[in-house]
Amino acid sequence: MRVQLRQICHARSGDKGDTANIGLIALKQGFYHIIEIEVTAARVKRHFDGIVLGPVERFEIPNLGALNFLLHEALGGGGTKSLKNDAQGKTLSSALLRMEIDIDDNIRL
Amino acid sequence: MKPFIRIASGQGFWGDLLRAPVDQVRKGPIDYLVMDYLAEVTMSILQKQKRKDPRLGYARDLIPLLEEILPDCVQRNIKIITNGGGVNPEGCSESIIELAHKMGIKGLKVGVVCGDDILDRVDEFHRQGIELRNMETSEPLEGIRQKLESANVYFGASPIAEALRMGAQIVVTGRTTDTGLTLAPMMYEFGWSENNWDKLAAGTITGHILECGGQASGGNFSGDWKSVPDLAHIGFPIAEAQPSGEVAITKHTGTGGMVTVQTIKEQLVYEIGDPKNYITPDCVADFTTIRLEQEGRDRVKVSGIRGGPATDLYKVSMAYLDGYTAFGTLTYSWPDALEKAKRADEILRTRLADLGLEFEEIRTEFLGYNSCHGPLAKVDQESNEVVLRVGVRGANFDSVERFGKELAPLILTGPPTVTGFAGGRPKAKEVISYWPALMPKTAVSPKVSVNQG
């Protein structure tokens, strides 16, 4: 079945200069292995096409059931330079939770 | 040695809930109150204040706060640690002692950590071969040298622990890592040595959990956010730290918000890079070793943390003047709200071009439509209203200022049903850009002193 990440994860995002980070956290430990396989750096880069201009890096934190993504050149210059309403990338967490992935029909949400 | 100490987070940033530190002191037992006031560009704002008045340059909110909590803190031996000293920790200390005198509190010991301000030493360092290149882009400093507004080394927990050993009841610092404010009392109380990496990492990660205040106790929680109780009276997080490095995160009973494994996880992943290498001046902490466990209601145990040796470099935070910016908004209503906002933007841009104004960037966003999620936003019905938001940035002050005068005329000379132009013309503001760099620890040392009132 097709699910939106918001059904199996929660997330928080923030900034460091012109780089945004998104911590994507599985709502149940059992969901971690799904996002570990499905939510690759390349897929996140495609998801944010037109928003993230630089590369996307991914780090795994299995003990927290979480993935950390660094989105480079994502904040219009960052800091006080950015002309974006969301200059600190605070809402990019929910933008990632829009992503749709296919999971096994037998998985209970 | 105490079996544990309670470290309470009082401010997540300068501008945070003013009542939070007061509640931390009054609503239950604590041993330390830690408060972070310094964001990356705050130091340049404080430098500007200090240039106008050499007695200023620190977080002035601290003084009325202390006026409220100092008697309780002195009576109950609650120590206060803050980086609110900004670019003038000595001046901050003098104001605190002056306040204590006024309040009839005698013999107050205020610790001061300074030496982080290297603005006047940048050229001297350059001659020594310390280039202070931008650590993200590798650009040399020369290009922005003349526009530098502030330059500060991030010190860690050690100098604060030193001030505590010297008997300080309040410690005010300049640029100190947020995490160091929390690690320091643990080092001091439990006698942790400066190479006990696992324990320093445990204290550092505890600091990371506390450093954004209510963000660890239910604020900005993206899980089941509707389930967070009584955010109006949110209790800020408190760490109950043990000599072993094990910590329980909790909050005062009777306060709102919540402390769960999920709220702690969200704060742990906030603004981090490589989780295996969380670098501070004190150690390198490994987030992949953290174990979390719900021990009870609003109580999460944090254990298992491992860390590695500190690097031999300090991070330097610099800020420089980088042109000007201005923003303005107009609200368009149904029908055709988005279309009207888009037309208004076209008209505005044509007029700016006709005037020959120079900008590095003009950015238009439609609030209520897609300003947050851009092309990812799914819009399936016509908006009842749209806020047109236009921002400009450029090196030319006059161009940016003139933009501010072109927005209001759209009300009478553009598309219909427009409102929301309260608060006057947009004003040009300085852009302060951030320049992170690294330098050898051997080139600079913190200065620690204790002043007695």
In short:
The complex is a heterodimer of chains A (109) and B (453). With 109 residues, chain A is α+β, with helices and mostly antiparallel strands. Chain A has helices at residues 29-38, 41-47, 92-96; strands at residues 2-4, 9-16, 19-26, 56-61, 66-71, 100-102.
What keyword list fits this structure?
heterodimer, A: 109 residues, alpha+beta, Alpha-Beta Plaits, 4-stranded antiparallel beta sheet, two-stranded antiparallel ribbon, 3 helices, 20% helix, B: 453 residues, 2 domains, 10-stranded mixed beta sheet, 6-stranded antiparallel beta sheet, 19 strands, 28% helix, globular
Question: How does the SSE layout of this entry go?
Answer:
The complex is a heterodimer of chains A (109) and B (453).
Chain A: E1 2-4, E2 9-16, E3 19-26, H1 29-38, H2 41-47, E4 56-61, E5 66-71, H3 92-96, E6 100-102
Antiparallel strand pairs in A: 1-6, 2-3, 3-5, 4-5
Chain B: E1 5-11, H1 19-26, E2 32-35, H2 42-52, H3 62-75, E3 79-82, H4 89-102, E4 109-114, H5 122-127, E5 148-153, H6 158-165, E6 170-173, H7 178-190, H8 197-210, E7 238-241, E8 247-250, H9 261-268, E9 278-279, E10 284-286, E11 291-296, E12 299-303, E13 306-308, E14 313-333, H10 337-354, E15 361-367, E16 385-394, H11 397-406, H12 410-413, E17 418-419, E18 429-440, E19 447-452
Parallel strand pairs in B: 1-2, 2-3, 3-6, 4-6
Antiparallel strand pairs in B: 1-7, 4-19, 5-14, 7-8, 8-12, 9-10, 10-13, 11-12, 14-16, 14-17, 14-18, 15-16
Helix pairs in contact in B: 1-3, 3-4, 6-7, 7-8
